[in-house]
């Protein structure tokens, strides 16, 4: 590699890395001020810029290739310029949109479109630069693609490092320095003053924006904004972390008392509240003193402690430590607090100067996903307590697409195994209407106990919360009486007890809207559960490891029925998350089809070749992302930490794919080679489908370094092969139909975006393994697409 | 010429619409309230009388009588007319009642209550909204409504006890001071849900020292319309 190639490849690597990093940074920045799903939607639309780059390249190929020596570095500089300005401009008073108000029409839809267009620009310009480079240097495609992949992998890691150093709104601007550097180091035929002037102007712009762009306002409907409007409210702590932007808000008006009895008449102390990316994560609590009383003694959350004071307690998703504090009140011998978000622990310990429930000598802290911990530990417990599930005031479905491994049937089975003979599992959820969360808990418990549920289960509720208690041994009459007495004393209603759930609704203190909740309980605990769950308009069957979406209830086929059942416009606000995903898929697909088809209108296509190009590169775009997304999910479970998993998998796949692409320099782009490589990928995917989960579970307790090695061992071979088909395909096109190269780049870009959205839908509908099987079939199909002889 | 005609047409529309709020309000009462389950004559009379369009931001005036809540800024909404009427009907207000409202918002609910009862006290936590509601109420002849800026969590002890308390947004717990300040046999009404959607209305009834709750109806969804600020 000579100096010029080295500078060219480095510039490509830098640009590719910056684009991936910018995508993640924008996603994070929008999640902070809006909601995750709207953030994904807008970023997906913006990413279509990659596809559009391919389309424009196809349409203006001659002019662009003639001026490529000037255009490629200019496009890189323009990419930097737009990267620096896109986000700040989208947050100006005139353009800023509010996710909630999108649903009501008006100017916010226009604002949303303008925002998407602004964000589209850096991806479009970057995609165009890369596509142009691939087109004009097609003979070096293997090396170029290798740099593209490796650069992207490094970019993914870089942005995670930036998350812990800078505030989210500064990161996209800072990242603009990278494509600027790429544009300036890119080899030039002569010293074009215009390029250097553009570079200087861009640098000035980046610095100006960086120092003048104020922290953007979150949506007026977001938790952090409401909290800051309270009297004397102030943000007393903020810290950027890779897990999210953490803020602690203090106000005398911030009080929290879930499940509280209406018999409680004393004062409720105000407590600071922790927010992560603008969402409330829970109230903060100091290490309780010996004489302090605990508010949860007047709450349904006390249910497990009414039977006895458990000695060994496991608290899953311990968060801000509220439940630990309550557990400490009952003087256990040992508490294990499991929390995967290390940032929360650091923040609250820093805020209270290490005087938090986590710092009690009785508490062992496990920084891990709850399910991962359950799979690795050999300890047994008297009580396993889960956090409060759902959202007060009824779910809006915004966490429907969040993977909750610790709420899957397999996780509950692990909890069951980790209980002492008289151990208990306790879980509380807000009462929702139509009922979904409590019913899913019930179906999960029923399956967990193989239908032998009634003698093990108790449930009590107040006006807005229900607490379930599942005991490993049957509840005895004394325990039943204790629960009844406790409920009566605090005006709670008994919903379930082993003495037989009542056929009539148990209205004593808190009457529900109608009896549908009780009929549902009857049906689930009775013999016609299957019929009931099939007929019920929402999914309430247990979540599984393969489809860990505990909060996803929408049955797409029953949308009309649900709309009739509720009211016409209620649905979007009940199951918003999944609906946004479906809407994103439809919009992205329509735009992608347009972008892919436009070049065919203006250029007389060679139908035979174009068909091959379309099928081959669509397949690669789809399958690559399918594999990546499923592997991330599998490794989240393995590492017990989404951050490590995403870093290891994304970087591992991209870097190994880069190596594969580089290796493809030595391969001929023959039909056989492509077929063999694709068959190899499908074969390895099949191996992963069959063996990955059991293998990872068997090695889950290994030390972290060894786990990294294992993950690279699992990912490496398949990722290496996955890096080969794209450069081989481009090489083949160069031999048979070079005019299609830029189009192929566009197709690949568009399909990658569709793929990321489609994978999420398929994961909900058919599970991760189903997505992987489809990916294997696509690779097999891609290998057998008839190439020109 | 065409432009001139169009301009005249638009002006006529604006003029007519401006004059027609009474008619629109009557239609609102007929189609949104009477046709549903609002039967309390006093409540219907109050709803017919209070000029809702004067309690919404200027940009929202033409939506004032729509069957939905409207944003009033600061993440708050003015409830759908039906919800206001329903909440008022549930507490069954009598002229001699002392009513406390927690969450003044635009002041509209307080104005409806003031049409029926003698003493209305209302507390708003957002200062800007409290100031705006106070002037709205005064300008529209509801100066007997006493507006206070503060944390409604503590109720209004010096004016307690109350025959009814209307809370416009629920917290995950019902503030104990509000229960204390409710008269025996007093009623408290609370909507539970998000800014988008009220999922249920919670009626809290104090019977001696015991407190009972009743969820009053299943989902009644009404979408928001446009932003105001």
Question: Would you write up a description of this structure?
Answer:
The complex is a heterodimer of chains A (789) and B (229). Chain A has 789 residues and is of the alpha/beta class. Chain A has four domains: 1-218, Growth Hormone, Chain: A (Up-down Bundle); 223-280, no CATH class; 289-554, Rossmann fold (3-Layer(aba) Sandwich); 575-789, Up-down Bundle (Growth Hormone, Chain: A), CATH 1.20.1250. Helix content of chain A is 58%, strand content 9%. In chain A, the strands form two sheets. Chain A has an eight-stranded mixed sheet with strand order 7-6-5-8-9-11-10-12. In chain A, a hairpin with a 2-residue loop joins strand 3 (273-276) and strand 4. The longest helix of chain A has 33 residues, at 607-639. Chain B is an alpha/beta fold and 229 residues long. Chain B has one domain (2-215): Rossmann fold (3-Layer(aba) Sandwich), CATH 3.40.50.150. Chain B has a seven-stranded mixed sheet. Chain B has a two-stranded antiparallel sheet with strand order 1-2. In chain B, helix 5 (108-114) links the parallel strand 3 (98-102) and strand 4. Chain B is globular. At the A-B interface, helix 11 and strand 13 of A face helix 7, strand 8 and strand 9 of B. Strand 13 of chain A pairs parallel with strand 9 (210-215) of chain B, so a sheet runs across the interface.
């Amino acid at each position: 590699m000579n100096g010029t190639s080295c500078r060219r490849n480095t510039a490509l690597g830098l640009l590719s890395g910056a684009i991936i990093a910018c995508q993640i940074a924008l996603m994070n920045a929008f999640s902070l001020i809006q909601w995750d799903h709207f953030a994904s939607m807008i970023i997906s639309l913006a990413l279509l810029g990659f596809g559009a780059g391919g389309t424009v390249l196809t349409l203006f190929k001659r002019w662009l290739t003639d001026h490529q020596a000037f255009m490629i570095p200019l496009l890189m500089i323009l990419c930097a310029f737009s990267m620096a300005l896109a986000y700040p401009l989208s947050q100006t008073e005139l353009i800023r949109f509010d996710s909630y108000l999108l649903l009501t029409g008006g100017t916010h839809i226009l604002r949303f479109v303008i925002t998407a267009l602004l964000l589209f620009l850096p991806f479009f310009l970057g995609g165009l630069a890369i596509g142009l480079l691939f087109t004009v240097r097609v003979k070096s495609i293997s090396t170029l693609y290798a740099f593209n992949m490796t650069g992207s992998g490094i970019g993914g890691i870089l942005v995670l490092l930036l998350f812990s150093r800078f505030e989210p709104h500064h990161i996209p601007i800072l990242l603009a320095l990278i494509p600027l550097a790429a544009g300036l180091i890119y080899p030039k035929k002569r010293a074009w003053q215009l390029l250097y002037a553009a570079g200087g102007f861009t640098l000035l712009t980046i610095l100006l924006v960086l120092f003048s762009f104020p922290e953007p306002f979150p949506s007026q409907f977001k938790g952090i904004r409401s909290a800051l409007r309270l009297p004397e409210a102030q943000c007393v702590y903020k810290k950027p972390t890779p897990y999210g932007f953490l803020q602690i808000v203090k106000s005398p008006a911030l009080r929290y008392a879930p499940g509280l009895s209406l018999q409680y008449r004393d004062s409720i102390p105000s407590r600071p509240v922790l927010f992560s990316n603008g969402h409330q994560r829970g109230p903060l609590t100091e290490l309780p003193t010996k004489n302090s009383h605990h508010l949860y003694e007047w709450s349904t959350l006390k249910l497990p402690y009414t039977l006895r004071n458990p000695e060994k307690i496991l608290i899953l998703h311990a968060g801000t430590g509220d439940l630990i504090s309550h557990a400490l009140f009952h003087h256990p011998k040992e508490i294990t607090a499991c929390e995967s978000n290390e940032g929360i622990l650091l923040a609250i310990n820093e805020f209270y100067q290490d005087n938090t429930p986590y710092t009690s000598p009785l508490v062992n802290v496990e920084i891990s996903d709850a399910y991962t911990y359950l799979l690795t530990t050999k300890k047994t417990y008297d009580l396993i307590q889960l956090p409060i599930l759902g959202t007060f005031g009824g779910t809006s479905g915004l966490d429907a697409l969040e993977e909750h491994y610790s709420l899957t049937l397999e996780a509950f089975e692990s909890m069951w195994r980790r209980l002492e003979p008289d151990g208990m599992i306790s879980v509380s959820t807000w009462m929702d209407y139509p009922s979904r969360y409590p019913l899913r808990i019930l179906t999960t418990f029923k399956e967990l106990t193989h239908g032998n549920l009634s003698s093990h289960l108790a449930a009590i509720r107040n006006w807005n919360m229900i607490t379930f208690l599942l005991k490993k041994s049957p509840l005895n009459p004394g325990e039943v009486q204790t629960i009844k007495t406790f409920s009566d004393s605090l005006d709670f209603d008994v919903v379930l007890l082993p003495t037989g759930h009542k056929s009539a609704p148990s209205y004593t203190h808190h009457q529900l809207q109608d009896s549908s909740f009780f009929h549902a309980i009857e049906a689930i605990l009775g013999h016609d559960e299957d019929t009931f769950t099939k007929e019920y308009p929402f999914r309430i069957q247990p979540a599984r490891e393969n489809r860990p979406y505990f909060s996803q209830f929408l049955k797409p086929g029953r949308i009309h029925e649900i709309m009739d059942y509720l009211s016409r416009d209620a649905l979007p606000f009940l199951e918003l998350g999944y609906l946004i995903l479906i809407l994103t898929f439809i919009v992205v697909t329509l735009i992608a089809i347009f972008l892919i088809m436009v070049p065919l209108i203006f250029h007389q296509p060679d139908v035979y070749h174009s068909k091959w190009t379309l099928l081959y590169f669509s397949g690669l775009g789809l399958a690559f992302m399918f594999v990546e997304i499923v592997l991330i999910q599998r490794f989240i479970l393995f590492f017990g930490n989404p951050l490590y998993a995403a870093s290891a998998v994304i970087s591992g796949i991209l870097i190994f794919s880069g190596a594969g692409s580089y290796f493809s320099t030595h391969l001929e782009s023959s039909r056989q080679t492509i077929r063999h490589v694709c068959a190899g990928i499908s074969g390895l995917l099949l191996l992963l489908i069959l063996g990955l989960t059991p293998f990872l579970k068997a090695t889950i307790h290994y030390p972290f370094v060894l786990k990294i090695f294992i993950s690279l061992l699992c990912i490496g071979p398949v990722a290496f092969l996955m890096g080969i088909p794209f450069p081989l395909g481009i090489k083949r096109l160069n031999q048979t139909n070079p005019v299609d190269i830029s189009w192929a780049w566009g197709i690949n870009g568009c399909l990658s975006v569709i793929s990321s959205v489609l994978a999420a839908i398929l994961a909900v509908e058919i599970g991760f393994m189903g997505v992987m099987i489809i990916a294997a079939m696509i690779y097999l199909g891609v290998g057998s697409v008839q190439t020109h002889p | 010429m065409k432009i001139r005609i169009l301009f005249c047409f638009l002006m006529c529309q604006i003029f007519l619409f401006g004059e027609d709020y009474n008619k629109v309000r009557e239609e609102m009462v007929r189609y949104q309230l009477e046709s549903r389950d609002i039967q309390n004559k006093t409540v219907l009379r109050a709803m017919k009388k209070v000029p809702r369009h004067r309690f919404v931001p200027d940009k929202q005036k033409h939506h004032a009588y729509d069957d939905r809540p409207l944003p009033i800024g600061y993440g708050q909404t003015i409830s759908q007319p039906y919800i206001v009427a329903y909440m008022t009907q549930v507490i069954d207000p009598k002229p001699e009642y002392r009513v406390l409202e927690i969450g003044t918002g635009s002041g509209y609910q307080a104005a409806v209550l003031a049409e029926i009862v003698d003493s209305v006290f209302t507390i708003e936590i957002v200062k800007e909204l409290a100031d705006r509601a106070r002037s709205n109420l005064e300008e529209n002849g509801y100066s007997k409504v006493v507006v206070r800026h503060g944390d409604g969590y503590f109720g209004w002890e010096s004016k307690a006890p109350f025959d009814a308390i209307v809370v416009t947004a629920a917290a995950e717990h019902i503030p104990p001071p509000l229960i204390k300040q409710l008269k025996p046999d007093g009623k408290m009404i609370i909507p539970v849900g998000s800014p988008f959607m009220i999922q249920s209305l919670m009626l809290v009834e104090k019977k001696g020292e015991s407190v009972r709750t009743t969820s009053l109806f299943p989902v009644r969804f009404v979408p928001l319309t446009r932003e105001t600020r």
